[in-house]
Amino acid sequence: MIVRKISAIAAALTLFSASAFSQVLPVLGKNSLKDVIAAMTLEQKASLVVGTNRSYMAPPEAAPGMVVRPTPDFSAMIAQMQSEGASFEQAVTAFSQGKVAGAAGEGYKIDKLEIPGIVYADGPAGLRIDPTRRGDSNEYYCTAFPTSSVLAASFDTELVGEVTRAMGNEVKEYGVDVLLAPAMNIHRNPLCGRNFEYFSEDPVLAGKIAAAYINGIQSNGVGTSVKHFAVNNQETYRNGIDAHLTERALREIYLKGFEIAVKEAHPWTIMSSYNKINGVLASENKFVLTDILRGEWGFDGFVMTDWWAEENGARQIAAGNDLLMPGTQHQWDEIVDGVKSGRLDEALLDKAVENILRITLRTSTFNDYKYSNKPDLAQHAEITRRRGSEGMVLLKNDGALPFTKKTKKIALFGVDSYDTLVGGSGSGNVNRKYKVNLDEGLTLAGYRLTPSVSDEISSYVKQQKAGMSENFWTVPVIPEKPISSVMAIQAAKESDIAVFTIGRMAGEGGDRTLTEGDWFLSDAEMDNLRTVCEAFHAAKKKVVVVLNMGSIIEMASWKDLPDAILHAWLPGQEAGNSIADVLCGKVNPSGKLPTTIAVKYEDYPSANNFPFSNDNPSEVCYDEDIFVGYRHFDTKKVAPLYEFGFGMSYTSFSYSGLSVTPSGDGFDVKVTVTNNGKVAGKESVQIYVSAPKGRLLKAEKELKAFAKTALLEPGKSQTLSMHISNYDLSSWDSREEAWVADKGTYTVSAGASSKDIRLTGTYELR
Ligand code: BGC
Predict the structure, then answer these.
(1) Predicted confidence band at 500 (pLDDT cuts at 50, 70, 90)?
(2) pLDDT for residue 712
(3) Which of 52, 119, 122, 224 to mutate to test the pocket of ligand 1 (most atoms within 8 A of CB)?
(4) Which of 89, 179, 202, 588 is most buried, by the most CB atoms less than 10 A from its CB?
(5) What's domain 653-765's superfamily in CATH?
(6) Is the CA virtual torsion 762, 201, 430, 469 positive or negative?
(7) Running DSSP on this structure, what letter comes out for residue 482?
(8) Helix, strand, or coil here: 324?
């Protein structure tokens, strides 16, 4: 009682002395944002909207037409911290070493106003931070989860939810506030170096998968940064390339996925991209960042730039780009000078500050969350193994898979069988504790590897790797070792089956190339595949090819050689186990292609305009307009090799009872799927809609919804329900500057792929 009285008196005295003798500053969380902002100096506001430059990355090379600032001088910001009470040493240390080592960036903090510096870290396939710290014996490894291609190919929002809830838990438990993911640019061209970080050629698939991703991460109370907004569909000259496209293509293809993600999942933040959109840098593009994103879609978080994207800081703020990352002195100067000279309206700066502070209130750092630094990595590895296998796509199977009971001994070819690729390079690469290669996965699953093959290739791989080193931009690629026919014939005698892995590595900063060893098989790969197939087929044994890459390659020239082809993507650190689970039949593959595999590269509608147009490295013209991916192949009647949405199973499914019922703002679709085969499996159903003839040229059909069954035992059925709104049917009419859906009869198709349409119904739009 006495103690309580004394503290009450002390509190009253403190209050009295504070109000009587000093000015009480408002603080974040206790006072209104308005009051907190009113208490800030212009310099503090500028510091808050410019990151603290704590980044492990150097500024990029200048692209044509782009200015790259020298390493910034942060003297003004350090002076600012000193004026707030920090010693010079403290200020410098704070700049050079953030709260979480290896995070991509950190925000500015203002202690007097109780504004913390929030922490941002990559990336799409798991948290990217430093796994070890100087003077600290603890480890901070993160899980390399299945990459985005796997998530999209699953066509399964529930799967994405499970993976990203686990991923978000690592973000939270390692003290990071915002994960710089998901990345969701459209697969406009198969050679884009970051396609493994992106989802699909289709905006509805990309948007729904992204929404599930954001919801999963954010269910942990940490944020996401949906990137790269927008039209960042290539890495070549990414810092300055000007993408020319119609407003219709912009809205229907390149923004649609972001729109779905914003409306369905409310990401805390968005990351603007490096490129220009119709002449205006994405980070200075008011039309996209303010008019559309906030005005039309109601986005209520904040926008940050991609790292080092800058030309003019004041213009970025004025356009609605609230935070400039990782922050340069030059941007800070422009903002301060801009306001002083009247070129930047201070109200716009205040708005940016307010947007950042509103989100800051939700962060772990602000709420002083006591993170453990001990997420359950074993549990996350289990999720990675199980879910990684479910996004794999079985492209061909002439009775080779799953392995039969008689399969005991495997001849394992391909360097990537012994150095399996689990993720890409660049900021999307995760510092994982370990990875499981395919040789290990098969051995753990109880198979024996034919030593004459595995000993030779694995020691070659070890020897090659010894002389190579990995860095941020590149993960070394080991060339195939030539296989002699003597070796292949001997292996065919000794083994029950052959598995041949073909891998490709890619990552940010560069696109893939139309060359042998990248888009095409290398001579050594082609020769080895031929040699192995000849030897095994002569011995009446099968050959299975495993594709281990984040995107796709040319396949028409070799797909007839092997008996089965499994696209395993980059499935995360449990790769070897996940692939082995599918090969042996423990998991029935249920992934479907999120991107069309064309017969030849020239069949892609962007082929003539990638990575730039008119021999001008500063511009790329999206001449194909809205006809991207299957929209082009279907409408222009170009036969693909493997169509969008295609993927086989070890069982077979029939579709029945399609119903299309008007409901609310559109219609409900129901379809029943039955497993008619002999093993349990999952099936994803795709709903395509074809519009009646109307004002605008439309694609033959467009994906509008999809859903996946649970694991169906043989003979079992499940009815899937989806809703499609009239707005979903609409197209952007540039003449009317509006979304329009023509009245009339729409064909509603339920497909196992974009070509394998099983049932059709109709919907009348009146
Ligand atoms: C990448 C972003 C990434 C950022 C921070 C940039 O180079 O484009 O995707 O989030 O770096 O690492």
Answers:
(1) very high
(2) 98
(3) 122
(4) 179
(5) Immunoglobulins (2.60.40.10)
(6) positive
(7) P
(8) strand
